Amino acid sequence: MIRRASLSDLATVVHWRLRLVAELRDVSIDSLGTSFRDATHAWLDAALASGTYFVWLAETSSEFVGVAAVAPLRRPPRPEHPLGYEGYVVDMLVPEAHRRGGIGSALLSRVETDCRALGMTRLWLHTTPAGRPLYERHGFGVNEGALEKVL
After folding, report:
1. Are 90 and 69 a contacting pair, CB within 8 Å?
2. What is the pLDDT of residues 61-119, one digit of tens each?
3. Which of 15, 20, 31, 57 ranks highest by number of CB atoms within 10 Å?
4. Where do the structural domains in the chain lie, given as residue ranges?
5. Statement: the pTM of the whole predicted model exceeds 0.70
6. Does CATH number 3.40.630.30 belong to domain 2-137?
7. Are 47 and 91 in contact (CB under 8 A)?
């Protein structure tokens, strides 16, 4: 089952965010530190409460098996996106033991459906090489025009 997370899922959402960051950095959750954990908890609490961050949880009858999260973004209108309402897929994680069973695809399909219903006209993301085929199967393409600078 895939469902939108609510504020009552805060502890689970925090855990999955920490798990994703730890996996991407190839470290343990504990090594991320208490201040990062506390900051993540506070940020997610405020963002979920205000509706400025959307999270979906995939679960079986006995455990959570995946997460996806989108940060909505309002931009000035463009001809191809007259509403200027887009979403950045911040988090997408299915644990290794549950990969290649359709959970990631089901999560992404639900994210797309719900974001479209919320009025978003575009989704974008950064991915790992392992995740790229999933997004390409769902119609995501490379935007060669994007540049980034860390400030």
Report:
1. yes
2. 889 999 999 999 998 988 877 888 999 999 999 988 899 899 999 999 999 999 999 99
3. 57
4. 2-137
5. yes
6. yes
7. no
